Amino acid sequence: MRITDLLKASGIALDAKVTSKSEAIDMLVDLMADTGNLSDKEAYKKDVLAREASSTTGIGESIAIPHAKSRAVKAAGLAAMVVKDGVEYESLDGQPAKLFFLIAAPDTSADLHVEVLSRLATILMDSNFKNSLLHATSAEEFLKQIDETEAKKFPEEAKKAPDIQPGQYQILAVTACPTGIAHTFMAAEKLEQTAKEMGISIKVETNGSGGAKNVLTAEEIKNADCIIIAADKNVELARFSGKPVIQTRVADGIHKAKELLERATKTKVPVYYSNTKEATQLTDEHESFGRQIYKHLMNGVSHMLPFVIGGGILIALAFLFDDYTIDPSKFGSNTPLAAFLMKIGGTAFGFMLPVLAGFIAMSIGDRPALAVGFVGGMLANSGGSGFLGALIAGFVAGYIVLGLRKLFSGLPQSLEGLKPVLLYPFFGVLLIGAIILLIINPPVGAINAWMSDGLNSLSSSSKIFLGILLGGMMAVDMGGPINKAAYVFGTASLANGQYEIMAAVMAGGMVPPLAIALCTTFFKNRFTESERKSGVTNYIMGLSFITEGAIPFASADPVRVLPACILGSATAGALSMMFNCALRAPHGGLFVVPVISNPFGYLAALIIGSIVGMLVLALLKKPLQK
After folding, report:
1. DSSP code, position 210
2. Beta partners for 313?
3. Most exposed: 205, 343, 395, 513, by fewest CB within 10 Å?
4. Are the C-beta atoms of residues 492 and 387 closer than 8 Å to each other?
């Protein structure tokens, strides 16, 4: 761990004006907070003062190195300060302290603060070096002096140290989840924090709902030692051809960041080759067939959601602003405003199944499969097989294009340009059309009708059981496969006119963050100060239907948090069904409650479910020892 990896220019003050030891520590803590390494400045300051109370950190020779290992530290860091006139610091040799270094180490890092303290003490014994720091005229010069001296003192390490220049990183990573809301950014942050603690230079590209951010450049890819792909949907891999690539789940980026980084830096990682036999072998080695199917499905779902959410909420608003008494048969389009919203929302919602099928197909067969999947999804939609038919159409379309690629692989090179513009579209669309119309639509349409009739005929007790099941599923893995299965079932039910299911699903997804937030508020002694502060943000996450807000708590204490959340979510789902709450929008949280039939019953279900989760969590978690 090099000093220059931990010290930023924003954490350096070269002409500080302090008159006492307490003022010196206050300024150093402020500098540390400016670097973004602290989650709770006051808590960290208490830990620094507690360490100082045991024995002074003024080591003599006008140097002081206060430090603390604290839960309030997000990532290891340093702050530095020069007090040219000196300040009384209870130093070991009785001399005023002029040069200060403050060390912040996370509570999870075993002996990082000891290692940094030892390293600083070693290089600061050079009086010429110490004087160069005291007389540095800029933060850049200060950092340069440290870098050069550290390289001389530790020459073997200097050869191995990453040259963190623009375009050069040891490790590159890409994170992506189906919704692109929470897991994507949580995995990126965890990889960055862990890499910083391990002294590894890293850049992480996030494929979120707003598009790719922090995009990796060709130069960075060329210079990187290894690429980590932590994604639950397909990302562009061709650019990494010829580089060692680790492919894993986005959840591993959150929970196994250190293992991934150690594997990327210390083991021989298979090289990925684009569009070759080796590439297929690499994928097969690390991913089961079921995992590949899941990623193809999530690729379709992630592209479908914006159409479903935007269109669904507009349709729900159309019913909210309409007057049922004008013409019950045209409810949702009676008033001009309602008709306007219904037209736009209905158009957006109509893209749901073609987009789902198109992007599943594209995930399998690449760009040539997109049009084939779109056509298959549209035919499934118009032919009565609905969501299930479009799902099947997406997979069939993708594998049709893969088959056509093999079939036409023997054509002369001169005809290569005809394949994507003529051969794949013509034969692909023809084949998917025949398969959907003649083979898939008749039986799947019948199954759809049977399921719809079955759901409509469910007894009250059966509906409650379904609400328990779906609500509980939303809390099992909070954005993972089980959660997504329940959510996809809810959105599919919207397409089939089953609105009560979506209401129960959303209630189940809102409860985990709310239950945790309530518990941190009313049972504070079960949580640390930083956890209580994080709990406040879960009110917003829960009310916005972002279940992933509960993940940090579930990861830290799954044995207690998960059962509590599952019980609370199952309760909310059951009550939503019992109160006959129906939701036409697939997202929105508290903001779409007014468009839910029986909104007061829905709020009651949500409140009761959250309280149940809170009480169970409070019962399972014991008060912390002071």
Report:
1. T
2. none
3. 343
4. yes
Q: Tokens 């220059």 appear where?
A: 4
Containing H/E element for 83? strand 77-87
67, 113, 296, 587: which is the annotated catalytic residue? 67
Instruction: Check 177, 226, 565, 581 and give the catalytic one.
Output: 177
Count of CA atoms in the C-beta half-sphere (13 A) of 423: 16
Secondary-structure percent of the chain, ordered helix, strand, coil, rounded to 5 = 65, 10, 25
Cα separation of 12 and 25, whole Å?
13
Give yes or no: 565 in active site.
no
Q: What is the pLDDT of residues 371-412, one digit of tens each?
A: 999 999 999 988 878 778 888 999 999 999 999 988 988 888
- The residue type found at 425 is P
Nearest residue to 475 via CA among 428, 502, 427, 511 = 511
Kindly report the pTM of this predicted structure: 0.55
Closest CA to 580 of 491, 493, 452, 463: 463
Q: State the chain's mean pLDDT as an integer.
A: 83
pLDDT of residue 479: 67
Length of the chain (residues): 626
Q: What backbone phi and psi angles, to 5 degrees, belong to 484?
A: -65, -35
Give φ, ψ of 81 to 5 degrees.
-150, 140
Question: 25: exposed, middle or buried (C-beta count within 10 Å: 0-12, 13-18, 19+)?
Answer: buried
296 is catalytic: no
Which amino acid, residue 3?
A: I
φ/ψ of residue 395, rounded to 5: -70, -40
Residues 6+ apart with CB under 8 A from 554: 478, 512, 561, 562, 565
What is the spatial distance between Cα 602 and Cα 567, in angstroms, rounded to a whole number?
Answer: 17
Contact of 82 with 134, CB cutoff 8 Å: yes
Phi, psi of 103, rounded to the nearest 5 degrees: -105, 130
More confident residue, 321 or 605: 605
Three-state secondary-structure class, residue 223: helix
pLDDT by residue (tens digit) across 212-251?
A: 788 888 888 888 889 999 988 777 788 888 889 998 888 8
In order, the DSSP letters of 285-326 are: HH--HHHHHHHHHHHHHHHHHHHHHHHHHHHHHHHHTS-TTT
* Residue among 43, 39, 11 at smallest CA distance from 27: 11
**Which residue's structure tokens are 């590439």?**
279
The Cβ-side half-sphere exposure at 238, using a 13 Å CA radius, reads 3
Specify whether the CB–CB gap between 558 and 539 falls below 8 A.
no
**Of 342, 343, 323, 344, nearest in space to 334 by CA:** 323
Q: Rounded CA gap, 533 and 56, in Å?
A: 31
